[in-house]
Write a structure and sequence with these properties.
The protein starts with 15 loop residues before the first helix and ends in a 7-residue tail after the last helix. By secondary structure, it is of the alpha+beta class. The strands form two sheets. It has a five-stranded mixed beta barrel with strand order 1-2-3-6-5. Strands 4-7 form a two-stranded antiparallel sheet.
Amino acid sequence: MSRFRLRRADLAGIPLSVAIGIGLLFLLGGMARAEDAHILEARVSKVMDGDTFTLSGESRRIRVWGLDAPEWNHQGGSTATSTLRSLMSGKQLRCAVLDVDRYGRLVAQCLLPNGRDIAAEMIRSGTATEYCRYSGGYYSTC
């Protein structure tokens, strides 16, 4: 298993508080698994459901790491989808790609411009739960 290597260049031009948050995500989380993990920084273009979205300029969908939300057509799904949409629509995100899932989606841990973690916000809202199988209890709800 490889470790994510955060380079100083990856943090250029972002506020210190966000840089510290990103560093802590990787140093404390110990969750990076992808060989060529990299940072994506772009505006959200579309929210598919409560844990999947796309970024402008990125053809593949992004699955929020450590988060499990009901599908849009299941009970609670429309609420989870609208919560994620209101949280991130049109915002510039900074995402660390950690894996690629069996559907070809990028699995990433993403931060809002103010440094808040998307998965943590969704879990806090009660519209989604921590995906303990993959998060290893990172959000302390397992």
